[in-house]
């Protein structure tokens, strides 16, 4: 079992920054990748950024150059640094942990970017 708790969301003006955190507990050794996804009202959930156990990262085209995914050395916390935020980044952001056989999701944190 893996538990995920996100934090760091909030209201920010366009052009501002936020840093999301996802604290991971439980069977951390079973996780091979972590990711941040988001879901805006009326839209499907989409991948924002992901990082593998080896440290390889990938990003959605819409956030490349603005967002950075990282983790602490122990692998207990995954971060999403969001810069140059745009109103279209407004969504609920979810942390996801991928293991061989199951995916775990956090409860989500709201990010609202005002124009």
Which features characterize this protein?
single chain; 115 residues; seven-stranded mixed β-sheet; four-stranded antiparallel β-sheet; 11 strands
The major beta sheet can be summarized as: 7 strands, mixed
- What's the number of extended β-strand segments? 11
The low-confidence parts are none
Shape: globular
The rounded Rg comes to 13 Å
**Number of helices, counting only DSSP H or I runs of 4 residues or more:** 0
Q: Which whole number gives the mean pLDDT?
A: 95
Distance between the termini: 40 Å
Secondary structure: helix percent:
under 10%
- Alpha-beta content class: mainly beta
Strand content: over 45%
Order of helices and strands: EEEEEEEEEEE
Give a verbal description of the structure.
The chain is an all-beta fold. Helix content is 0%, strand content 59%. The protein has strands spanning 2-7, 10-13, 18-26, 31-39, 46-52, 57-59, 67-71, 77-82, 91-99, 102-105, 109-114. The strands form 2 sheets. Strands 2, 4, 5, 6, 9, 10 and 11 form a 7-stranded mixed beta sheet that branches.
């Amino acid at each position: 079992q893996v538990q995920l708790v996100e934090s760091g969301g909030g209201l920010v003006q366009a052009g501002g920054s936020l840093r999301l955190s996802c604290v991971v507990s439980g069977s951390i050794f079973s996780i091979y990748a972590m990711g941040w996804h988001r879901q805006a009202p009326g839209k499907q959930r989409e991948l924002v950024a992901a990082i593998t156990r080896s440290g390889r990262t990938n990003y959605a085209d819409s956030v490349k150059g603005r967002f950075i995914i990282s983790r602490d050395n122990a692998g207990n916390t995954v971060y999403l640094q969001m810069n140059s935020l745009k109103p279209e980044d407004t969504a609920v952001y979810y942390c996801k942990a991928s293991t061989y056989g199951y995916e775990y999701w956090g409860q989500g944190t709201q990010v609202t970017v005002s124009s």
